[in-house]
Each structure stands twice: as structure tokens, then as C-alpha cells.
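Field reference: sequence -> structure
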Amino acid sequence: VWHNYSFDCHVIENYGFKVSGFHADTMHMARLWDSSRHLDGGYSLEGLTGDRRVMSRAQLNHEKDLIGKVSMKTIFSKKKLKKDGSEGKTSIIAPVEELQRDERIPWICYSALDASSTLKLYESLKSHLSDMPWKFDGVPVYGKTMYDFYNEYWRPFGELLVMMESEGMLVDRAYLESIEKVAKEEQEVAVNRFRKWATRYCPDAQYMNVGSDSQLRQLLFGGIVNRKDSNQTLPTERIFKIPNVNNVIEEGKKAPKRFCDIKLTSLGYNLETEMYTATGWPSVSGHALKALAGSISADYDFFDEDCNLDLDDEDENPSQSEVAPVKIDKSAYGTAYAAFPTEEEGREACHAIAALCQVCSINSLISNFILPLQGHNISGKDLRVHCSLNINTETGRLSARRPNLQNQPALEKDRYKIRQAFIAAPKNSLIVADYGQLELRILAHLADCKSMLEAFEAGGDFHSRTAMNMYPHIREALEKKEVLLEWHPQPGEDKPPVPLLKVTVC
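Structure field:
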């Protein structure tokens, strides 16, 4: 009998011991008995054994035997020492290998209580589940209880999940390193695009940290009044300290300082926004920046002011050299477009902020996917990534963490083909299968909705087909083949010939 079998099993196997004899996991049993404990004590051994309602069925000789589990942090944590030897605020716990030697008696007591508490918890939960009828479609299954359900389905499922965690997933580390390099290069290009534009309005913007909310807010919204407190106003200019990466030596100094000052001034134009922080200042989150930029690309040529078009002096008919004005779709630009005095400046602003959005998007891919999959803390010598699969979710669906292998970029948004990093071992094949819009298909079947059934029978992305039926301009774009309803890549094809509708309208 275990509590959190997954964790203990992997720890023991890391020392070379093969674990056999899985009888029950009290954490899973507690979840099956009461799925609402996420809001009332949780499923930790400490929380469960300290709850009299949970432990009411345990075989206790005396009331005093009801001793709840005590956490390792409570018993063994110590304050981290500062450089001067005094205690800091942070508490740390020594590695288990040290605790069992240096704190031998408390460690033995802790371990014994842990085992005893788990057994008593198992006895109580077994009794609780044995009194719960196993129901199917609201009708009790004859002669069956939820403890039978646990033994027949949940226990083998829990053991299977632990086996999946142990097996892990093989990843191509060399491929991840290569796309990390490409991602960082493209991110730097996008950063420089934004800085180049911003420098026109604020010279020191070339040194700013585009990942700093306070610096971005100062540049884009300097001079704005706080939405919650009209007595507070964001200054039109502000001094920021940044790392002195260029080792600039100030006048009269012999050595460069670690930090230097830059002065960021506002753009001088009122950018409209409807998104604010809890403190009343304009938000510079990804969604807020997207609203400013609109649904446009970051790719844009920012011409220098002294760039002139050279004309042939011998051209007898210069009127033929004139370029016809290009009709521009203003609806694609965000709210920043209207804030500037000329259309050209408005377009440049939107494209520059779109580049900033691209920086955020790439940074998210690097930090959430590319780097975690290369972490040595979640992979072994065999280059297989081992995540933790959690069955105790509020929705009843599985979740994964450290890393979250379920949360990989969608195919149409996977600009660096991160999914290709998951590979099969030699002489094996990797089968990729997915139910497209499973919940909506079930809804269409149960509701017997004619329009939904027809949409699924016709094929293509369901939401895109809905948009096509609702908006004439979308249907027109599909008929002109300016966008695609769906695209199935063939071998050697990396991207569709024209954008997908579900990507364009997002």
C-alpha cells in the first residue's frame, strides 16, 4: 500500500530496485471517494490523515492513535544561512541521504509514522468505498461497490500511468538545440525591428529591455492618467537602470559600473487601450499588445528618412515611372494605427508592435517548450523525457507536468516544428493519432443536430465552417482560395499554399 505510488516508485527505481506488489494508492482511493477535496484539504497524506471524517473508519485501539502525518518541512527544515552566518527567511530541507544519517532518530520516527498513517488511511478508505454502490447510468451494479471499481479499473490504470512515466518519451536533443538557436536568432531580429522603430521617438530605446513591462509602459503610455486614481499620472520620461553590457566608462571614472542609466520618454501620442492592470495602469501583456498591433505581420521595411528613389534623367516620360497607389486594408491594423498623424507612421507603429508580439510569442515557445524538453532534471542518460502524470484533476482528465507533454504547440502554431523533436527509438515507429474536435462530435451525435452532423460529414475545421456560414466575406475569401478551410500536408510540404482560415481569423 502506497500514498502517491508514482513518486515513491520512481525514487526507489532510481537506486536500481524494481518495485513489485502494487496493492493500492491511498491518494487515488481518496480521490475516488471524494473528488471535492481540492477545495477542502487536498489529497496529501498530511491533509487526509488529519481529517477525522476521512479517518473515521480506521481501526484504532485508542483515540490517541489518530495521529496525522507531519510534513518533512515541519520536522526537518532549517533556515538558510546568509553570508554573514545569520539565518535568512528561506527554509531548506537537506537531501534524504543526509537526513537519514544526521537526523537518524527523527528520520526513523518520521518514516515509521508515514508507513503507519498510510496503512490506517487505507483501512478507512477501503471501508468508505466498500459502502459506496457502483452505479452505471445511475443504476447500481448488482453486488459491486466502488472498492470493486477501484480494484478492477482504477488500480491497474494507476499502475499503467507509472509505467508510462518510467518509460518516458525519446526526444531528439540535437534537433531541439538547433531550433533553439534559430528561435533566438529570430527573436533578436524581432527585438531589433521594434527598437529601430522606437528609437525614432526615444533615442535611448535602442538600449531598453523589451521584456520589461515598466519600460514598455513608459514608452507606449507615458503621460497617461491612472484609471483608478486620477491623482496619479505616468511620467512622460523616466530614468531606468540597465546592465552595462557595453562597459561604458562614465566621465571622470576609471572603471565601468555594473549598471548604467537610460532615459525613456513617451512616444508623444495617445495610444488607446481597453486593457488595464489591477493597479489601474495600461496593460502591456501579449493580448494588449496584439490589440494595438492588429492582425498584421511583423515583417515590414522601415525606410530611412534620407532614402530617395533615383530616377533616370533620360526618361522622356516620367509619368510612366510613377507607381500607382496601393490600396491598403486598414481594418487589419490595431488601435495604434489611428494614434499617429500619418498613415505611414500608423502602419509602422503597428508593424513594430507586431514585432514585439513576435518577441513574446517566441519567448513563450523557448521557455515553455524548447528549453524544458532539454532539461537534465527530467531526462536520463537514455535521452528519454519523463513527465509526471496526474490523475487527481478537478475535471477528471489526465494532466502532465514537469514537463507538460500534453501542452505542445498546436500544429498550425508550431513555427519551429517542436513536435518533430519527439521521435521513435531505432527499429520502432511513432504513431500520431488525434480525435479532431471530439467533444463537438459527441455533442452533435447526442443532440442529433442536423447542421452539426452535416458540417462534420462535409469535413474541415468545424469552427472555420461555422465562420464561413456566418460571414459573407469569409465565404468569399474561401471561394477565391485566399484562405483554406483545412489542409493536409503531403510528404515534403511544410506549410500550406495559402493561410488557413482558423489561423487568419484568430
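Note: The first helix runs from residue 5 to 13.
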